[in-house]
Amino acid sequence: xxxxxxxxxxxxxxxxxxxxxxxxxxxxxxxxxxxxxxxxxxxxxxxxxxxxxxxxxxxxxxxxxxxxxxxxxxxxxxxxxxxxxxxxxxxxxxxxxxxxxxxxxxxxxxxxxxxxxxxxxxxxxxxxxxxxxxxxxxxxxxxxxxxxxxxxxxxxxxxxxxxxxxxxxxxxxxxxxxxxxxxxxxxxxxxxxxxxxxxxxxxxxxxxxxxxxxxxxxxxxxxxxxxxxxxxxxxxxxxxxxxxxxxxxxxxxxxxxxxxxxxxxxxxxxxxxxxxxxx
Length: 279
Prior knowledge:
The longest helix is centred in the first third of the chain and has 31 residues, at about 70-100. This protein folds into two domains: about 10-60, no CATH class; about 65-275, Orthogonal Bundle (MetI-like fold), CATH 1.10.3720.10. Helix 8 (about 145-165) packs antiparallel against helix 11 (about 195-215) and helix 9 runs antiparallel to helix 10 (about 185-195). The N and C termini lie far apart (about 50 Å). About 25% of the residues are buried. It is mainly alpha-helical. It is globular. The chain is built from 16 helices and no strands.
């Protein structure tokens, strides 16, 4: 009997093929709308309404020229609001996480869990009380109203994530620093933060994404002067109707910043989110 006839045939790996099909289907579902959004942004308003839609057409930058006319003001508003709120979140959340991880107590886990459960609170439940408070303080449509909201919204995320990173630090390093007379502030700045910079980067990235995409609070607490991009995108619908091509161009410009930030910090993001997953 020949070796070819005695060789056992490998079974067909149906599970492997099914997994690949499911992954490609997920890619199409997730990135298909983004691809079509970008394609539509290079069409004219008339071509955007063609049925059936056309993939072969003469691209134009006409929609981007029109979108840029009203893009820069809300873009700068979003950069200022998101940048300042994220910095404040880190300034408040990182020391809080360090205190909870350094001073071990049986209730620390419960405290951290309480922090993160505040994210489960429906936004509409606090919308009216916050609106009344900000109206009385004359903060509506100011730079500080969304900064305050985003700090309250994202600080629990910073505390929860940084606590997970910091509690896995080797205790021997921190105890040796104490023996050498290092103060807690020096320990945080010179030891803990450098060792958890990947976690800080991934946490900051999540804060930027959540704040950049926030719509309900933004549309409720701002009007014209400090309108962020998330509200400006929705405002592209005019009394004359919905111009899909220009809306696609404006939306494409609006998502550029999160995409660039995510691409630049992807290594830190993956490293930070997977830190401590394997002991």
